[in-house]
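My hope is that you will study the protein record below before we discuss the fold together.
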Amino acid sequence: MDFNMELYLKATPTLDAGHERIVEIARTLTRGCSSDDEKAVKLFYFVKDSIGYNVFMISVFIEDFRASRILEWGKG
């Protein structure tokens, strides 16, 4: 199958992938990785191990669900 990965790498209202802090952490974590698979695994484990899930988080503001805000808070 031929996938256009650009479709999956675009920013969205909650996935602000171009945010300075997000980019900085992603580059740091993936430095030295030899494949996209290895990068994906490193990023997955960073989120799994570093970002707590808050089942009680209630907000009406989309900003509170942005990746950069969740990264700042360390939970979401």
Observations:
- The chain has one domain: 5-73.
- The CA atoms of residues 29 and 46 lie 8 Å apart.
- Helices lie at 20-30, 36-50, 67-73.
- The chain has a mean pLDDT of 92.
